[in-house]
Amino acid sequence: MRILQLLLFSFAGGLALSGIVANLYRLLARRPKGTAATLCHWAIMIVAGPSVLFENSTRSYRSSACSGVAYGFAVAIAGYWALLLGMVMVELAL
38, 33, 17: which is closest to 89 by C-alpha? Predict the structure, then answer.
């Protein structure tokens, strides 16, 4: 039971961290211009990726631009990515 709680906490923590970073980046940043800005953008997207992927895939699914299978695959990838971020966050906290 403890392992399941840790997995769920890691998933929720990773998704929350991803959402916070994604929204802060949207508030503070503009389109990247130049090599350094592009590299910084990609570094931030490593952490913000699950939230961005989930949002973009949901928008595509609602507008019927992608199938249910593609949407499920994107959600599964975003969930696994968020779980990994959360596990890293838990490891750093311990």
Answer: 17
25-51 pLDDT, tens digit each: 989 888 878 888 889 889 899 999 999
Q: Is residue 76 classed exposed, middle or buried when 0-12, 13-18 and 19+ CB atoms within 10 A define those classes?
A: exposed
One-letter amino acid of 31: R
Residues 87 and 9: beta-carbon distance below 8 Å: no
**pTM metric for this prediction:** 0.83
Task: Pull the structure tokens for residue 22.
Answer: 């994604």
- Residue 63: DSSP 8-state: T
Q: Is 79 exposed, middle or buried (0-12, 13-18, 19+ CB in 10 A)?
A: middle
Distance CA 21, CA 51 (A): 9
